């Protein structure tokens, strides 16, 4: 043994010597676990994006070789991860099923069950495969094994029964139900059995199932369902017997609020009001008060229907009235309590008392003339007026309520357009249009708001008074010339009247305003109008004017899409020739149906201008320039009318302008400006940037800065 062994000294000499670390201090640049995980994830995503090429099989030998290769891959995969990843088995069996080799598919499923017979998904997919290919006996065998091994999984029983029922094997389905019931499932399982028997009009069998149900699961839910079943079959005595048996058999467990409510509702339904009253009283005597809130409310409702209504309501209302009086006396400015108090009196139906409560409520003015204090208070007046108009049927009093509310609001500080509008609508419903106009006129005169103008314009528009609508729009825009929505609605009104010249004048006046709240919406509406008019020249001029104001990438893209698309047909020939406005200046192309080549050329020019403008005017806007290039490339690819060679050349020319996507690092600084680390980001390097020599970078940046400075001075 000595000749094959080695001494301790020899082994020590053969081992590599340990390397001594001279500097054990921490490195200045640390790599965190987060960075390692992020890089690993990115590498994994890059690997996942790889797609193998498609393989075309032409003869049986290649098919056999392909199947052999796939089976070897699956076998290796299940050998490695099959113990803890059942999805691999499912994919394997599904692939065998797709190859129509059902014997092998069954073998795979059986092997999967040997690995994990408690996996429900495997059983379900195994049986579904057999059912899908009409192997009924095989499927029945799988279901039978599944429910035998996993009898507590309800889904397996449901699927098994569904298959038998779909095959018309009612007796077999009933046998499966009987096997299932021996395991005493939950309420849903028993109800499924009952519904199965009722589908085939086996009322006696269903009753027998219910008898077993209430014995296995003695609960309120089971007995109530049994009673409802008897009631649906018209047997009142059996239904009452179910409730009475439940009281005896459940004992204290059955004395619940739900059970007594159901029992009383049953007696009420069969017109046995005395029995129902006795049940309610018995329940209220035996159930703790804290657990009988719904029962008490239901008893009160029952007495309202069948008892001495006045006495019951007086008791309930007086009790709640006392509570509300305490609340509003503690805090008179608690408007929510006043709302509840008013609702109580409205339900009681005493109009005089309702008016008294409303008057007391509105007498509590907010503590300060700030709108946030008045927002809740003003709804008391609104509800007061609605009550007078709808419940009391007194429009004159409702009008007085609105008048008093409008006098009370300090319109010099703030106003509520809802009050003005509701008061005007009341006059409209009363067919007093002059009064409605007078109210809305006072609204826009004393405290103009958008809602007041919109309501007034809507009223006049419904009445067909176009001249009044124009006057109102003029007043509206004089008050708020920055409201783009008002300008657009004014122009749409003129457009619906067929007044193209007026519409165009409104839009021109709108875009000339120095301040606008949504200029992009206004310009879009103007451009859409010109497009709908079929005037390509005017639309092009609009886009050019818009580009003089902004160089946003969305404007460039919209301009290019417009040039590439045909205009809608059916425009007015007279208006295209001049119409009411007289002859227009000639444009480069005024034909709404230009040739595709001309449209494509114009769109290409727009794309070229957009890219050049973005690169020169805003070099840092690389994302926007990339959007332009991508849209440009899609445009060139969509030109099917071109020869294949020309289209490929155009696409290649755009592709040459595409930037490269590179990953870079930049420092991360905290609030104090100190560097706390680095972060990675994606940057785009355009060809003109990548081709510059490193020593010319500084000169290029200086030249660009000088150009920007000269542009600002100009």
Task: Describe the protein's topology.
Layout: H1 8-14, H2 33-48, H3 60-81, H4 86-98, H5 102-115, H6 120-132, H7 136-149, H8 154-166, H9 170-181, H10 187-199, H11 203-216, H12 220-232, H13 236-250, H14 257-269, H15 273-286, H16 293-306, H17 309-330, H18 335-348, H19 351-362, H20 371-391, H21 395-408, H22 417-429, H23 433-446, H24 450-463, H25 466-479, H26 484-496, H27 500-511, H28 519-532, H29 536-549, H30 553-564, H31 573-577, H32 596-617, H33 622-637, H34 644-656, E1 660-669, E2 675-685, H35 687-690, H36 697-713
Antiparallel strand pairs: 1-2
Describe this structure in a few short sentences.
The protein is mostly helical. The chain contains 36 helices and 2 strands.
Write a structural description:
- The chain has about 725 residues and is mostly helical.
- It has a domain of about 70 residues.
- β1 and β2 form a beta hairpin.
- α7 runs antiparallel to α8, α15 runs antiparallel to α16 and α20 packs antiparallel against α21.
- The N and C termini lie far apart (about 100 Å).
Could you tell me the strand content as a percent range? under 5%
**Overall 3D geometry?**
flat
Low-pLDDT segments:
1-6, 570-590, 691-696
SS content category: mainly alpha
The number of helical runs is 36
Task: Give Rg in angstroms.
Answer: 42 Å
Main β sheet profile: 2 strands, antiparallel
Mean pLDDT, nearest integer?
81
Pfam families: HAT_Syf1_CNRKL1_N (PF23233)
Subcellular location: Nucleus
Function: Involved in pre-mRNA splicing and cell cycle progression. Required for the spliceosome assembly and initiation of the DNA replication.
Protein name: Pre-mRNA-splicing factor Syf1-like N-terminal HAT-repeats domain-containing protein
